[in-house]
Structure formats: C-alpha cells, structure tokens
Amino acid sequence: MERYAIQELYTWKNREGRKPLIIQGARQVGKTWLMRKFAEEAFEKSIYINFENETLLAHTFEKDFDIQRILLEIQLVTGIQPDSNTLLIFDEIQEAKRGVTSLKYFHENAPEIPIIAAGSLLGIASHQGESFPVGKVEFMSLYPLSFFEFLEAIGKGQFVEVIRRGDWNLLSPFESNLQMMLRQYYIVGGMPEVVNSFVKDADMQEVRRIQRNILDAYERDFSKHAPAAEVPRLRMVWHNISGQLSKENKKFIYGLLKEGARAKNFELAIEWLKDAGLVYQVNRTKKGQLPLSAYEDFSAFKLFMLDIGLLSAMSDVQPSVLLDGNAIFTDYKGALTEQYV
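Now predict its structure.
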C-alpha cells in the first residue's frame, strides 16, 4: 500500500544537518512497515534491530555511549557494517535501556549515519530515570491511513487528485460510487492490517475480527503500562467514547462514566490515553475566528478515537448498514462523520 508519510522520510533523508528521527504513533499504525519499506527504496543497505527480540543488543547502551563500540557490536550481531549508506532502524527502542538517550550521542559522534527509531509512544514518553535527547532528534507522527490513502489501497487512486482539485463537475457522475467508498472507509478505517484484509478479501466479518483484536490489544496495554490504580478508569473512559459521541452532547460529560464522576477523577486517565496516541481531545472554541487556539474553552471538549474503523467496531456498527443508504450517517447522530473530520 502507499503511505504518503514516506515522502516525509525522503525529505528527512535529504535534509542538511539531519538528526536521528523518531517516528511517533500508536501501536499497529504501520511504523515498522514504513521504516522497512523506506529502507528498501532509499538505501543501499539497512540494519533492522527490534529490541524486543534482539536481547544481546538491548543491553548495549547500558555500559556507556561509546558510539564506535556500539557500532562494532551492531556489526558483530547483524553482520553488516553501519556507514553513511546504511539506514539504521531501531524498532521498539523503549525496550533498550538508555536507547532513546543514545540517539543524542549518535547525532554528536556519528552524524553521518542515518537512524530512524520507533516504539511505543508510552514507552518513549515514560522512560523514567533517563535523559531525553532534547534538540538532538527529530520527530514524525504516523497515523492510520487517510481516506485518500484508502482510495489508493483499493485501486481507486484516480479519484484522489480530482477530489483535491475540487472538480465537482467531473466527479458528479461518480457520486454514488464515491459515497459507497466513503461508507466503506467509515467501516474499515485506516489501520493497515484491516485495510490489507479488506483489499484482499472484502470480507467485512474478517475486518471486524481484526479490529476487535486490535481493540483487545490496546486494552492489554492498559494493564502493561498504566498505573494499576488507573486501569479501571482508563477502561471506563475508553469504552465510553463511542457512547458519548453517539449522543447529542455538546461536550464530554463525566457523569456518563459513573454517577457523581468529576474531572479530577478522570483527568489522568484521559491524559494517559492521549499520550498513548489512542484518543484525540478536541476543545470547544468560544468563537469561530482565527487563531482558534486563542478562543479555546478548556472546560468543554470531546474525545475521539485514533481511527474511524475502530470507533465503528467499538460502536458495533454492523457492516450491513453499507447497504442501507445514509443510515450510517444518520443513525449514529453524526458521530462517525465528526470522527472522520
């Protein structure tokens, strides 16, 4: 499939004075695939290290940050000598103690070696007791596939440029087709594994099975990474998002989580979900004037999920609604359209 984010990687590769790059994003949005695809396209050689699996190298940064020693260890383990034509990929970097910190020393002592790192947003953000390489790394965010990327994946990329141009007269004869493709995107969403399955088999039941597996995996992350005391509140917020959006609420209502709930009881849980890349918090604005940030009302907000397909799966939107005109747009009180926007 085509990911537009790969163009950002080419821009990074060709930038003078580039720094090690950290790709941020929730689990399963395609970070590993993107890094490996870019390595295959843009470099003579690459070294891929997954610190979850490569236990020998997971401890290589603990002794010191002697970059020449570290590069030699990498060569001994992988059989490839890192150089300026070799992309060094550090995946699940949060699993290597002091791995994130090491990027500072790669930048200072071996700036010619291109490095891309990725890992759990939570793991990178909460590497307690370690120094973060402020000013020594660059960041790029990766999200689920957009609607345009979805069109490319299903073989309808010819519509993308026409939509971008806003040539509605040319698109008019294809209106019903485009509406169906948008409905499909509302159901399938943009998680790469889900899109791949849909492209291959067009089996909506299999789409839902994969989406539920992803949702289950995210919940398992709650117990793995979050403070034990916060896990019940995390689950309450997480499972309440679809219900809140399907009601005609103007803002997130804590009282719908449990009777008597207050903001102070759930603020940490919401921040945790935001840090994990699983939800977006969109604040209300008091005026529709630019810049919108100057008129933000921090007391009123809505929570949206990272992916429209996962929201429809959590909401138990049945794929059969695809056959029922605009039911998908009306029965859920605009929730899916707000999520799409």
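The beta strands are 21-24, 45-50, 86-91, 115-118, 138-141, 279-285, 296-305.
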